[in-house]
Design goal:
about 400 residues; seven-stranded mixed sheet; 16 strands
Length: about 400
């Protein structure tokens, strides 16, 4: 009986942890300033440790003495409610883990090729300086410099035949904070430039320190694409007391198009590509797609994947997001634990098809915390295929075309 009670304690502690994580994930999805979130995180950390101590110390060896021959009937009634919630939390943990392990790959995905580049090896040293959270970088197994470079092919229902083979390079979450030094990001940009995409997009969380806007000319400023480079900002560009207007201007001066809260339309091979950007819920408003023709292809840049329900209402064809970093730490058999989303870890990273929208969530390049376990940083090129062509009929898209920005709504 004592061993059974000990097992129940373990399950209750796991359920309690799931409840605390669920709360933190949902709250971090809201428009709340960093200082408030920091206090919440401290309370979360304290409760994570305190509950198992109280569980074993008081309920196990004191009070009811469940680990010394006591009976559950002696448990104070008020605790039955919370233990019941912990049981529900443990069931939720099981469901979340199974969803992570069994999540199917959408039929829209045709191929997925990737390889890993060790940036530290490529440089000949680890590009770290004495910045915030520096000690995390020394955790054994840390993959912060193990860049996964991917090329993924998707067949999209609304992609015009004239655009078959259109490619989009997706970057997100650079998080210039100063701990991971600029040479790392310069190497990432070198690799990105070699991938030669038709279109380049950045989906937010660029700066954690405003003065590091000076890094932009030697990083994002060196990228170009024949259909242009487009960006939005993220919560870290806002919640840390930074100056998003200065950041927008710096990127715009380097040739990037700001799509936040508006829709930029491009005429390409006789068809319209509408690119909209959303930084909601932190800044601005959703872009307006209402004045587009029915055959326009709709691309949404949204920092958080939480805007997917809105995107589906707007008939968005392709939505690109970051923000969740894949969880940064992925536990074997369980999956990611932390993701600042009102959906928890459901959209931590990867590809999702929810008709009529294909959502791709990148794990991003870096993070505020220099720690990644089983969750490499990611640089992805998406190649889009038209359903009107067979797999062997891919065409060179728009090698000689007149591409023009038509409007910003």
């Amino acid at each position: 009986m004592i061993w059974l009670n000990l097992l129940i304690f373990v399950l209750l502690a796991a359920g309690h942890t799931e409840l605390m994580v669920t709360l933190v994930n949902r709250v971090h999805a809201l428009r709340i300033r960093r200082e408030t979130l920091r206090h919440l995180r401290h309370a979360h950390d304290l409760l994570l440790v305190a509950f198992p101590v109280v569980l074993v110390g008081w309920f196990g060896f004191g009070g009811p003495g469940l680990l010394t021959g006591g009976q559950w009937a002696d448990l104070p009634r008020g605790w039955w409610l919370y233990f019941g919630l912990c049981g529900m939390g443990f069931v939720g943990l099981l469901i979340s883990s199974l969803q992570h392990l069994l999540r199917p790959i959408p039929k829209a995905q045709i191929t997925n090729h990737s390889h890993t580049i060790d940036i530290a090896t490529r440089l000949g040293y680890a590009p770290l300086v004495d910045g915030p959270y520096r000690r995390m970088a020394n955790v054994p197994g840390n993959e912060i410099f193990q860049l996964e470079v991917s090329e993924k092919v998707y067949r999209l229902p609304q992609l015009p035949q004239e655009w078959d083979g259109l490619s989009v390079l997706h970057l997100s979450d650079l998080h210039f904070i100063g701990t991971v030094d600029r040479p790392f990001f310069e190497q990432v940009i070198d690799i990105a430039g070699d991938m030669q995409a038709d279109l380049i997009v950045f989906t937010g969380d660029l700066l954690d320190r405003q003065e590091l806007v000076s890094w932009l000319p030697e990083t994002l400023g060196r990228l170009s694409a024949r259909l242009g480079c487009y960006f939005i900002l993220g919560n870290h560009d806002w919640e840390h007391g930074l100056n998003p207007d200065e950041t927008r201007q710096a990127l715009s001066d380097l040739g990037w198009q700001d799509t936040a809260g508006k829709t930029v339309c491009i005429e390409h091979n006789g068809r319209t590509l509408a690119i909209g950007g959303s930084e909601c819920p932190w800044m601005g408003e959703h872009p307006d797609f209402s004045n587009l023709s029915d055959d326009a292809f709709r691309l949404l840049l949204s920092h958080t994947p939480d805007n997917l329900p809105w995107a589906r209402q707007q008939q968005i064809d392709l939505m690109l997001s970051g923000h969740n970093h894949g969880g940064q730490v992925v536990l074997p058999g369980i999956g990611p634990v932390y993701a600042p989303s009102r959906f928890g870890v459901r959209y931590a990273s990867g590809v999702f098809w929810e008709d009529p929208t294909l959502l791709y969530v990148t794990r991003g390049i870096s993070g505020q915390y220099p720690l990644r376990l089983n969750c490499r940083p990611e640089l992805t090129k998406l190649i889009l295929r038209s359903p009107e062509l067979d797999l062997g009929e891919a065409t060179a898209v728009g090698v000689q075309t007149d591409n023009q920005i038509l409007a910003s709504v």
